[in-house]
TrEMBL record:
Protein name per UniProt: L-idonate 5-dehydrogenase
UniProt keywords, alphabetically: Metal-binding, Oxidoreductase, Zinc
Enoyl reductase (ER) domain: residues covered: 8-336
SMART domains: PKS_ER
Family: Belongs to the zinc-containing alcohol dehydrogenase family.
CDD domains, A to Z: idonate-5-DH
Pfam families assigned: ADH_N (PF08240), ADH_zinc_N (PF00107)
Alphabetized GO MF terms: oxidoreductase activity; zinc ion binding
Taxonomic source organism: Streptomyces paludis
Oxidoreductase recorded as keyword: yes
The protein's required cofactors: Zn(2+)
Length: 341
């Protein structure tokens, strides 16, 4: 079978690997679609993502969907041909979390994640024609949800988790700074959860058009000199740009909340944070998701349309080109066609 494997910085190969067989408690998924994430780009560009560094070749990809091709022993309720996506996180160990974060499985000290080099040996992802998956990580797709859209349940879950971290957004005005794929999905998630008005801001016109298609009531083109709104009760930063923090904090109302969903650098950087104190703003981190992938699938079932987020589609043999496009400015979600669909 073909697999998209990063061997080092700028060293991506389509390797031939043996087709795996499912063991007890596993299923074999014939992958059909995968969405390229920023971490995939980071491994390809730098040989690292955050603090996780490549030590061995790694199959990329954690936003994936396909159809069950075989079922291992001891697996009930899953059948051959069933369309599915994957919850890509598996906590390591069985030590209970402290009571204050009970149930927040995304905060386990050690979590294996599809397509991650955080552990040695690494955890291969799903950018391959086939992959075995533990049955408890499988999420069947609702009727009417394609495998292409099912592959976007994972980033939609990230967005829904960020909105969940903000509390009840019903009837509120919301600012989303950074209208890339995650920002656009935060727009959709906020509207799905009942936000009254969502304003999206970015430094590029193309992602702002996507944000409007995903439900933004107003957009702000920062490159064109437009200014952020004032006194917004609830803000999300999906840009991950330290330079944006000062303006977004200044746009957030006194006593308001800023949810940080865009990954910030792991190294020291300058940032203007004075408003965090003087405006008594609650600055909340948001990391991956817990079980919001189930809500994401329900939202897709109920008609939430993620197709505007998709900007490009490539076959698996053009994965290097797909990553180049995903790494450029202005692209939306770049999808890989991993198998027959």
């Amino acid at each position: 079978m073909k697999a998209v494997v990063v061997h080092g910085p700028r060293d991506l190969r389509i390797d031939e690997r043996p087709r795996p067989e499912p063991g007890p408690g596993e299923v074999l998924v014939a992958m059909e679609w995968g969405g390229i994430c920023g971490s995939d780009v980071a491994y390809w560009k730098h040989g690292a993502s955050g603090t996780a560094t490549l030590r061995h070749p790694l199959v990329l990809g954690h936003e994936v969907a396909g159809r069950i091709a075989a079922v291992g022993t001891g697996v009930d309720g899953l059948t051959d041909g069933q369309p599915v996506t994957v919850h890509p996180a598996e906590p390591v160990g069985d030590d209970p979390l402290p009571e204050r974060i009970a149930g927040r499985t995304n905060l386990y000290p050690r979590v294996r994640y599809f397509g991650s080099a955080a552990f040695d040996p690494h955890t291969d992802g799903g950018f391959s024609e086939y992959r075995t998956v533990r049955a408890e990580l499988i999420r069947p797709l609702p009727a009417g949800v394609s495998t292409e859209h099912g592959a976007l349940a994972e980033p939609l879950a990230v967005a829904l988790h960020a909105v969940h971290r903000a509390g009840d957004v019903r009837g509120k005005a919301v600012l989303v700074n950074g209208a890339g794929p995650i920002g656009a999905l935060v727009v959709a998630a906020a509207k799905h959860r009942g936000a009254a008005t969502v304003i999206a801001s970015d430094i590029s016109a193309a992602p702002l058009a996507v944000a409007r298609a995903m439900g933004a009531d107003r957009t702000v083109d920062l490159a064109a000199g437009e200014e952020l709104p004032a006194d917004i009760e609830l803000s999300f930063d999906a840009s991950g740009a330290p330079a944006a923090l000062g303006p977004v904090l200044a746009a957030t109302a006194r006593g308001g909340t800023l949810v940080q969903v865009g990954n910030l650098p792991g190294t020291a950087v300058p940032a203007v944070l004075g408003s965090l104190v003087t405006r008594e703003i609650s600055w909340i981190g948001s990391y991956r998701f817990v079980d919001e992938i189930d809500e994401a699938l329900r939202a897709l079932r109920d008609g939430l349309d993620v197709s505007p987020v998709i900007s490009h589609r490539f076959g698996i043999e053009r994965a290097d080109e797909a990553l180049t496009v995903a790494a450029g400015s202005g692209s939306g979600k770049v999808m890989l066609r991993l198998g027959g669909c």
